[in-house]
Amino acid sequence: MIVGRAAQIQALTAVLDEATQHRGSALVVRGEAGIGKSALWGEACALAEVRGMRVLTTVGVQAEVQLPYAGVGHLFRRLRPEFGAVEGEAPFRVGVEVLDLLGGLDEPVLLAVEDAHWLDRASWEVLAFVARRLESDPVALVLTARDGEDVDRNLAAAALPELQLEPLETTHAGALLDQVAPGLSPSLRERVLAVSAGNPLGLVELGGLAARSGGAALLPSRLPLSTRVERTFAGLVGELPAATRALLLVAALDDGDDLDELLAAASRLEDRPVTADDMEPAVVSRLVSVDEQYRLRFRHPLLRSALQQSASAAQRRRAHACLAAVVADDDRRVWHRAAAAAGPDEALAADLAAMATRARYVQAASIALTAMERAAQLSEDPRERGSRLLWAAMTADEQGDGETVRRLLDLVDETRLRPADLARYSWYREALLGNGWTGSARLGVFLELIDSIRDAGDIELALEALTNICLRFYWSNPDDRTRLRFVEVAEQIDAPEGDTRVLCALAQVAPVERGASCLEGVTASQHRLELTPRQRYDFGFAASALGAYALSNTFLKASTDTLRTQGRIGMLMQSLTSLAYNAAAAGDVRAAVSAATECTALATETQAPVWALQARLQLGMAEALRGNGEIANEIADVSEKTLFTAGMHAMLSLTQRIRGISALASGRFEEAFGHLHRVFDPGDVAYHPYLRFTLVGHLTEAAAHCGALDEVRAVVAELAPIAAQSRSPVLITGLRYAEAVLADDAATYEAVIAADLRDWPFERARLQLRYGGWLRRQRQAAESRPLLRAAAAAFDALGAAPWAERARAELRATGESRRKPIDALDALTPQEQQIARLAADGLSNREIAERLFLSPRTVTTHLYRIYPKVGVKSRGELAAMMAERSF
């Protein structure tokens, strides 16, 4: 019987009852060591069985914290025996597999995880990911965790509900003590209560010792409670034979549970044969158990900690060395060799680094990260140590693990880095952490370092460093001399045949001088099948920098699909941000909102402030385009403060873009022109030489309504030769609109509309609106109506409501009344819109779940909500409705 925990049991009961009603949820029961977490965990399992729930359990093991997915492997192996094969996959990807696995069950389930603070990081990330998505699944997840800084950080990041266990009240503590140690003298009873301070495990263990040994059992009295309890377990082990203690120490340090392996290692540790009979005293004492598969398990996790803490560093290293000598797996052997190392060992560090490189090559990024970090710890050469830490940080970023990125970069001693690594370090802190922004101040220095690396013959490192600083060049507005020096350095690198990094770098840094040739190269690569997700992303970003958004999307969408499958969340966020940027720049509001919203959610979940900021800026542009000026301007204001604080002044062009489009959408044309023109003014802090290419059409529209066309003529005169040199599609399209507005005659309108604008539906609709209005004013109403109808339909499909309303107003002026269509998709949330599009494209619920990191059951629930909202009854009707909206 559990004493004094009625309220906590009621909370657990509520979680279980919700799960039986297909309302999944999670609860973390936390508190200090011995506070009663295990008892409540067991009670939850018993209550679940009473309710007919399937109960799956696992226990975090301190020795397995370096084994990715050991925890979830134990948890789900009863459902899928081969589940251990997930080792090496990305946590988000494994999370999707878990959701899929749970979705296939026909009964409510309790996932009961004890000692989650000792789970390996990958298992913790999987379970946190799953817990946040149990909205429509009959699944309850109950975890217990000991208090500590690591747990605080993990729980804060995971945002899971918590149930904090406090010490028992005096009355309840006394009742528990009387159950386990009746008959204590009043003075000894009071001493046990005082020393235990309401801790149930302390009451049970110390009360039992007091009953057997008297007051001497409670010395020394100054030990912290957690340490006292661990010492209690260590005292129990101390009574066992030497061979048994050796066997238990090896078991406590092992990352496996195979008894034969433990016996072999213990024999080496003792320098004599240790047999299964030597384990019997520990089994009889109920310290451990051995199942029918000869797997060993400790009765209480504190025993592992007690064994490890009571052993000296030399004993632990020797035990790890013995394990390294007997394990069969090469990688496990390397792990134990690393744990046995008494100090820096460059050969061992190199082995670990090689293992990390192999793991990353096969997309096992979590294993690669752990191995490379330990390799850095063992490095004798401080330069190698720094390089390996940077390698690990970038791998963590690919996984979307911002906390680990910060921790690893904080370990780097920048004074001991090679010049190239110093450049990488500075870039990582800016790009990955958002810690300040040096702009163009150090770009020249970095270029000379890259050139020296190239001259020394390290082509791979030179290419990597070159790629790392491209984005900073794009958003730093460097002077022409520095930019052209970049071109010179890049083109002198003798890259391997087929390597595309120089081309992609030049597209970002010199989109005018090298724009035409880069565009040709990117276009020629769009049908290559052998490209990796990283190469597709690089090509996509390059095409975006060149203003070829449809081409960019071809690469980015393919990259995004693969990154979702692999669970590489860091790169996925970058790809989604680029897709949102492309859509916002092209006027596709719906696509921009979808990509930006998803990226914002992922960036918030993984604590990636840089990508969260970028996604919010694209979302602000989309909100402005669809007429939500209050939301758009709030995003601009908040983002501007962040950008000013960080010194990212060139990115202020993005906030001016939001304000200008917001004013344009609401008909405040003079204000709109003022905001947008700042991006074109080299003397303004918000100037950006390339973002202005995307704003020519908007600037011209604002100018046409506020009498500022002379300023537009000056802009066109400046940008026309740049367009001819760069062949930037977005700039050419914007200049076509400006040309038509400035000429303001039928021949020019007809010529511009006849141009190939298939990739530019917003600009085509804007031209149709402008020309249709011109025809109406020329008293050619019949000729104007088809243009205005087409414009209204396109703007409605894109989600640009203010422009669609202007087109309808022009139609009304011609005598034709056209109602605003009721677009059912507007009633859906961004996530529901994503699900609707994917379902209409023919994807199954399982496939949609994999793409969006949801459970299949959650997708099913969303579809049941979507159908009545949009007025359909089936997938087929949904697909037909979505097809009618295409343009």
Secondary-structure topology with pairs:
Layout: H1 6-20, E1 25-31, H2 37-50, E2 54-59, H3 70-76, H4 91-103, E3 109-114, H5 121-131, E4 139-146, H6 149-158, E5 162-164, H7 170-180, H8 186-196, H9 200-213, H10 225-238, H11 242-253, H12 259-270, H13 280-284, E6 288-290, E7 296-298, H14 301-310, H15 313-326, H16 330-340, H17 346-361, H18 365-378, H19 382-398, H20 402-411, H21 419-433, H22 443-456, H23 459-468, H24 470-474, H25 480-492, H26 501-509, H27 515-524, H28 533-545, H29 549-566, H30 569-586, H31 589-605, H32 609-625, H33 629-646, H34 652-665, H35 669-678, H36 696-706, H37 709-726, H38 729-743, H39 746-754, H40 761-777, H41 781-798, H42 801-813, H43 830-840, H44 845-852, H45 856-870, H46 875-885
Parallel strand pairs: 1-4, 1-5, 2-3, 3-4
Antiparallel strand pairs: 6-7
Helix pairs in contact: 1-2, 3-5, 4-5, 7-9, 8-9, 9-10, 10-14, 11-12, 11-14, 12-15, 15-16, 16-17, 17-18, 18-19, 19-20, 19-21, 20-21, 21-23, 22-23, 22-25, 23-26, 25-26, 26-27, 26-28, 28-29, 28-30, 29-30, 30-31, 30-32, 31-32, 31-43, 32-33, 32-34, 33-34, 34-35, 35-36, 36-37, 36-38, 37-38, 38-40, ...
